[in-house]
Design brief:
Strands 1-2 form a two-stranded antiparallel sheet. The chain has a two-stranded antiparallel ribbon with strand order 3-4. A two-stranded antiparallel sheet has the order 5-6. A hairpin with a 6-residue loop joins strand 19 and strand 20. The relative contact order is 0.04. The chain starts with 6 loop residues before the first strand and ends in a 15-residue tail after the last strand. The protein has no helices and 50 strands.
Length: 436
């Protein structure tokens, strides 16, 4: 039988037909040899015709279809099958045997032909469309926040400022003491005005100092409390105000002043000095001096204290009362002077409030002790002490009676301090004997 197309009978003696080899063909019956596929065409074994290389492949001089290399492609409709085309700029292809190239996506670009990959856009560069040849730089005030392959740049948000150039540009947070509002230039953060502060970073505004505080410099990170006797009654003040005359603040950081308390006076509400006072309704100009019979030993008092019984004071502006001395008394409050005890009375110690009557054994203006050899009974006159009678004696002062001479002794002199012992050959056989 004759050999069909795609087969040959190279030997007349053989009755078997042989398949045409790869990349050869035979389209005629009963041939003895196969034909080579033309350049750009290929065939499998036993084919009656050759076909063009598929898309993504090309025919080489060595025969067969080979895959397009990276960065190249071949369409199935290409008339020329002996080579692959280069990917154009803005495209890339990383795979072998590709029928097309891929466009560079946003964030990537490629300036060269025949590239296997698209180049990354660097920090602060971008492409916002496909098929881009080069990356564009972010405009002033815009960044990619240190990211590569960006499809867009972002404007520095309020509270941040634009700093640096090119790939080194950044959006930095405004430092404490400064701010940037949405309508402000992106290139700089503004310092807080006097009367305002900001203690945080990255802020869009400054804060007004609250009442009781102020700040007089720009770029402040805190407000300062008003010192004592200064005040700030509204927010946002550059400096605190001084309290008006006769007003003060009890503590730092006050928003209002108050009138001087009782016990204080003057522009700075000074405490009244010792020996002086100021009541609630008195003038603020000065403190009142304590009158005689009164005193004040402490600062800032609202009244003077009365001298208590047993004390007196006859001077003004006194800081203490004088204690009444011995034999003087004060039996009431607010006394200017102490009273001398009347005849026949006395005050035995300082600070007495009443005089005592002279006790028996004492006499006279100052209740003097009766001398030895003398006495005064309670019923006796206060004018003087009596001498001990004959036959009596007394060795102690302030005695109320005399002692009798005992038997064996006698005393014949008044006011004696002892009895005389009877001499030899004399005697006394009874008490109170004047003579032996």
């Amino acid at each position: 039988m004759p050999c069909v197309p795609g087969r040959i009978q190279p030997n007349e003696a053989s009755r078997e037909c042989v398949l045409c080899e790869k990349n050869t063909y035979q389209n005629v019956l009963n041939e003895i040899s196969c034909k080579n596929c033309p350049y750009g065409y290929v065939a499998e074994k036993g084919q009656s015709k050759c076909v063009e290389c598929k898309a993504g492949r090309f025919s080489s001089s060595s025969g067969g279809c080979q895959a397009c290399t990276t960065g190249r492609y071949r369409l199935g409709t290409d008339l020329v099958s002996t080579s692959c085309r280069q990917c154009p700029a803005g495209f890339s292809q990383k795979d072998l045997g590709s029928a097309s190239c891929l466009p560079c996506t946003p964030g990537f670009a490629q300036l060269n032909n025949g590239s296997s990959i698209c180049d990354d856009c660097l920090v602060n560069q971008y492409t916002d469309d496909t098929r881009q040849l080069v990356c564009k730089s972010c405009p002033f005030g815009f960044v990619t926040h240190e990211k590569e392959r960006s499809a867009a740049c972002e404007e520095c948000t309020p509270g941040k400022n634009y700093d640096g150039t090119g790939i080194n540009a950044k959006c930095l947070k405004c430092q404490s003491g400064s701010y940037r509002f949405s309508t402000d230039s992106v290139g700089i953060c503004k310092l807080c005005d006097p009367g305002k502060y900001q203690n945080k970073t990255g802020q869009t505004s400054c804060l007004a100092c609250m009442p009781g505080q102020s700040i007089g410099v720009i770029g402040a990170t805190f407000c300062v409390p008003c010192v004592k006797d200064d005040f700030a009654n509204i927010s946002g003040l550059e400096s605190c105000k001084v309290c008006p005359f006769a007003k003060y603040t009890p503590m730092i950081g006050s928003s209002q002043c108050q009138f001087c308390d009782a016990g204080k006076y003057g522009g700075r509400c000074t405490k009244c000095e010792v020996g002086r006072y100021r009541s609630a309704g008195d003038s603020f100009d000065a403190c009142t001096i304590c009158e005689p019979g009164m005193y004040q030993h402490q600062l800032g008092q609202t009244s003077c204290l009365p001298c208590i019984p047993g004390k007196a004071q006859d001077e003004t502006e006194a800081t203490e009362c004088n204690i009444c001395p011995i034999n003087f008394i004060s039996n009431d409050t607010e006394r200017f002077v102490c009273d001398y005890c009347a005849f026949g009375t006395y005050a035995p110690k300082p600070g007495m409030v009443a005089c005592r009557n002279c006790e028996a054994g004492r006499y006279g203006d100052k209740c003097t002790d009766c001398s030895v050899g003398m006495y005064r009974a309670s019923k006796d006159s206060l004018n003087s002490c009596k001498k001990c009678d004959l036959g009596f004696y007394q060795t102690e002062k302030a005695s109320v009676a005399c002692l009798p001479c005992i038997p064996g002794k006698a005393q014949n002199t008044k006011g004696s301090t002892n009895c005389t012992i009877c001499r030899h050959f004399e005697y006394s056989d009874a008490i109170e004997m004047a003579n032996c």
